[in-house]
Design brief:
By secondary structure, this protein is an alpha+beta fold. The chain has 3 helices and 6 strands. The radius of gyration is 15 Å and the shape is globular.
Length: about 160
């Protein structure tokens, strides 16, 4: 996948109806997240993939990108994060892949348990799972697959987060 800039964000395919697919690579810089996510969310909103749930998708995507850049690629300027977004009628799926070695999801502490409540680790994954209908980690943890449908959100964020 060639390196692109957030300003180059265009769908790579458009199908009948509001179905789009976007593929994009970002440098491993936290500063690259906002511009890219802002443009992608604008596109998602215009296509009405998951009307009323764009905010959930935005937060989950920002968390996934921050984790990929910070924990996966260790902000290495030689590495990139690759995003694939597929927007269909009433559903969106997003894949975020980093060039890191992955991690064991089973070793991530539950941020809601009393002993971890003040820890800042695991909250991004917790929020992604709470906001999206499905979150899966693949390829040893270097890929996160997220899916959201336009139906009611089955997960509810606790008020303290």
């Amino acid at each position: 996948m060639s390196q692109q800039h957030a300003s180059d964000l265009l769908p790579i395919s458009i199908h009948h109806g509001p179905n789009i697919q976007v593929e994009h690579s970002l440098p491993s810089e936290i500063a690259a997240i906002s511009s890219f996510v802002d443009k992608l969310i604008l596109l998602i909103t215009k296509c009405r993939c998951v009307p009323g749930h764009e905010g959930d998708v935005e937060v989950a995507l920002r968390e996934a990108l921050a984790n990929a850049i910070t924990h996966g690629n260790h902000e290495d300027p030689q590495k990139h994060v690759f995003v694939r977004c597929r927007c269909e009628v009433d559903e969106i799926s997003i894949s975020v892949r980093d060039e890191g070695h992955g991690f064991d999801i089973n070793k991530v502490a539950d941020p809601t348990s009393p002993e971890n409540i003040k820890s800042d680790h695991g909250r991004g994954i917790y929020m992604m799972k709470a906001l999206m209908d499905e979150v899966r980690f693949e390829e040893g943890g270097s890929v996160v697959q997220m899916r959201k449908t336009a139906g009611d959100n089955r997960h509810v964020m606790p008020p303290e987060l």
